[in-house]
Specification:
By secondary structure, this protein is an alpha/beta fold. The chain contains eleven helices and 13 strands. It has one domain: Alpha-Beta Barrel (TIM Barrel). β8 and β9 form a beta hairpin. α1 packs antiparallel against α10, α4 runs parallel beside α5 and α7 packs across α8.
């Protein structure tokens, strides 16, 4: 993974980028109005392999967007899965996100440096396996858990979006997103929930999922739906169909929810990429941008 040189450089870049005119998503005035993002967590080798591919393919067939969270250390040996994901790396409907290195509980990690190292490791694994042109902007927190150190680690790792629990994400919970350099897009609905004894997942009725989406749209202007490879694909498809029936709702990736059709700054990702390749980062490379496609 990256050493002290990378962390020093990324910290300097973070300070510069933080001063740029980024418009963070505000809890009451989000950039993307009445948008719904689906978050597919726990993408990893040999784990519900057929189901992982089937859910992603179902989103494509329904012309619906999805953000997939890859666990860095658990991705790369299942060549069929890697090849499947790689073929869609430039599909604007499928966003590739960072879901930690070992699916750690970031809320329990007591310093930013250790969290940053884990995040950078996953960024590098994704770039090595899927291509260095993949723009990674989103961190999906394992267990939806973060702490105050996570915000610094996320930003210094070249990421702009954090998706966690709406209560554990204290910046979101305290309505402080307008002063944060990150976009805070917490999970507000889920396709299944853990049982009380934390040993199994139970499906949430479709009508309840839709109700939570509507409530989140009213409260936040957008909604983020968490799902996993084991979730009932017919239920997910039904939720998608109901959302598409609402002419004023739009299904987007987390990246599009944050940035809309605006340009996505690639400064921090460019720095990490250059360090990965052993290159020299110039001022011009640090602030190149990429136009979002719809």
């Amino acid at each position: 993974m990256f050493g002290a040189r990378a962390r020093i450089l990324s910290a300097v870049i973070f300070a510069i980028v933080s001063s740029m005119v980024l418009q963070p998503v505000n809890a009451t005035q989000p950039d993307c109005q009445r948008c719904v993002a689906f978050r597919l967590d726990d993408i990893q080798d040999f784990y519900y392999s057929n189901e992982q591919r089937a859910i992603i393919e179902m989103f494509r067939q329904n012309n619906a967007s999805v953000t997939i969270g890859i666990i860095g250390s658990m991705f790369g040996n299942d060549t069929e899965l890697v090849d499947f994901v790689r073929q869609y790396r430039n599909d604007s409907r499928i966003e590739i996100a960072n879901h930690g290195w070992l699916h750690e509980d970031f809320g329990l990690l007591e310093d930013a440096a250790s969290q940053q190292e884990l995040l950078e490791g996953t960024n590098q694994r994704i770039h090595d396996l899927l291509g260095h042109d993949v723009l990674i902007t989103t961190f999906i927190a394992p267990f939806n858990s973060v702490n105050d150190h996570t915000y610094e680690a996320v930003a210094n790792s070249g990421l702009y979006i954090i998706s966690a629990d709406p209560v554990r994400d204290t910046i979101f919970a305290n309505d402080q997103t307008s002063s944060s350099p990150l976009y805070h897009l917490p999970m507000t609905a889920e396709v299944s929930i853990l049982t009380e004894n934390q040993t199994a997942w139970e499906p949430v009725p479709v009508i309840e999922i839709l109700s939570k989406i509507d409530d989140s749209i009213v409260a936040n202007g957008n909604a983020v739906v968490m799902l996993h490879p084991w979730d009932n694909i017919e239920n997910v498809q039904s939720v998608i169909a109901h959302i598409k029936d609402k002419s004023d709702y739009k299904i987007v990736t987390l990246k599009e929810m944050a940035f809309g059709q605006n340009e996505v700054p690639e400064g921090l990702n460019a720095a990490i990429l250059a360090l990965t390749l052993g290159g020299v980062v110039t001022a011009g490379l640090l602030f190149r941008s990429k136009r979002m496609s719809s």
